[in-house]
From TrEMBL:
<dbReference type="InterPro" id="IPR022695">
    <property type="entry name" value="Histidinol_DH_monofunct"/>
</dbReference>
<protein>
    <recommendedName>
        <fullName>Histidinol dehydrogenase</fullName>
        <ecNumber>1.1.1.23</ecNumber>
    </recommendedName>
</protein>
<comment type="similarity">
    <text>Belongs to the histidinol dehydrogenase family.</text>
</comment>
<keyword id="KW-0479">Metal-binding</keyword>
<feature type="binding site">
    <location>
        <position position="211"/>
    </location>
    <ligand>
        <name>NAD(+)</name>
    </ligand>
</feature>
<comment type="function">
    <text>Catalyzes the sequential NAD-dependent oxidations of L-histidinol to L-histidinaldehyde and then to L-histidine.</text>
</comment>
<feature type="binding site">
    <location>
        <position position="417"/>
    </location>
    <ligand>
        <name>Zn(2+)</name>
    </ligand>
</feature>
<feature type="active site" description="Proton acceptor">
    <location>
        <position position="325"/>
    </location>
</feature>
<feature type="binding site">
    <location>
        <position position="256"/>
    </location>
    <ligand>
        <name>Zn(2+)</name>
    </ligand>
</feature>
<keyword id="KW-0862">Zinc</keyword>
<feature type="binding site">
    <location>
        <position position="256"/>
    </location>
    <ligand>
        <name>substrate</name>
    </ligand>
</feature>
<keyword id="KW-0520">NAD</keyword>
<feature type="binding site">
    <location>
        <position position="358"/>
    </location>
    <ligand>
        <name>substrate</name>
    </ligand>
</feature>
<feature type="binding site">
    <location>
        <position position="259"/>
    </location>
    <ligand>
        <name>substrate</name>
    </ligand>
</feature>
<feature type="coiled-coil region">
    <location>
        <begin position="12"/>
        <end position="39"/>
    </location>
</feature>
<dbReference type="InterPro" id="IPR001692">
    <property type="entry name" value="Histidinol_DH_CS"/>
</dbReference>
<comment type="pathway">
    <text>Amino-acid biosynthesis; L-histidine biosynthesis; L-histidine from 5-phospho-alpha-D-ribose 1-diphosphate: step 9/9.</text>
</comment>
Amino acid sequence: MKWLTGNTAEILSALSEENKLTLEDNQQVEEQVQKIIQQVNENGDQALRAYSKKFDQVELQDLSISQETIDIGYQRVEKGVIEALEAAKENIVSYHEKQKQYDFMDTERPGVLRGQLVLPLARVGVYVPGGTAAYPSSVLMNVLPAKIAGVEEIIMITPPSVTGIPDVILAAAKIAGVDKIFQVGGAQGIAALALGTETIPKVDKIVGPGNIYVATAKKQVFGLVGIDMIAGPSEIGILADKDANPVYIAADLLSQAEHDTLARAIVVTDSVTLAEQVEKELYRQLETLPRKKIAEKAIEDHGRIIIASSVAEMFLIMNKIAPEHLEVQLNDPISYLHDIKNAGSIFLGEYASEPVGDYFSGTNHVLPTSGTAKFYSPLGVYDFVKYSQVTYYTKDALAQAKDAVALLARKEGLEAHARAVECRFARENNETMS
């Protein structure tokens, strides 16, 4: 695990060099994805079946998953898992219901009504990755906020498999309230949601994580549809003082490192002694970790221990990193809450372990990565609504405003704008519009 020491300016400079974004796109992936989208646009379901055979080694007759298949999958999942998913759902719903926003109208000026309507999206597509792991928690996190927002129809897609869609994914979809499920994945699945095919309906927005092809496809179809974000590898940042528990810190670092060899695990502390203890404990825990190879490479390549000169400097550094997950393992952690400027999800105290947020607390685990917490937010109910503004003026109210409107319009060289207001009073003033 690499250590970064020195003054704060030197540490920030080193981090900046490490985290420079590559401006050059992966041109090969971009071109492949563009061709896939074009094929889906031209050939619809036929292209989806061809790509399923090519990429997933599955020949499909029916792209849709029947309700009977969903029900059977649900029944096969052990009772304890169903109960845990239901409990997680309860927490996710109770948290996200507080994010709901409502219409407003104001009548501050006589004859003028202004307002805002909060309108749910009509149809949303949720991408659920396939491959070696199944993530039912991500189904709940993506679907339930959309349900709370009032989305009329939720379409879920997930890659086909020779062994079928995992039962636990089908169970999570049933519990969350997905309306339709289709077995199609990759860039072709994103294209199908964005464009629509004979079988898969076009959606208004696509959410959910995926590999580089899925992420690239989401980027390319943005504009045709909305997307949530372009997610990068998982990351965790931990602020810790000399009294923090190195066993807990090491365990939480590994909870993210086991996701992916590209995952980032970072500790910022003002205690060299704690840093040494954390590093020692981390490698001890690694020895018995089932996903040791993945976690070890992530720690070696992207793990960082940063030594700061003070708690204030610790926050300065971490705010520059803007981690996806931020743990504050300091004495009286709640008192530091307003020192945090950039973080996707914040975990306060030694018992708010990051996996609690991944699965159970109710906060969302679809979060901004790679420093984008500086301008992106966690997935929420607000991602599944849009806003329409409302204006109403009486004749008397417009009469008071018309001269200012016309003046500003002409200042911008837009004569028709000015006339559109003035024509409503031309007859009274015995004027003609010319």
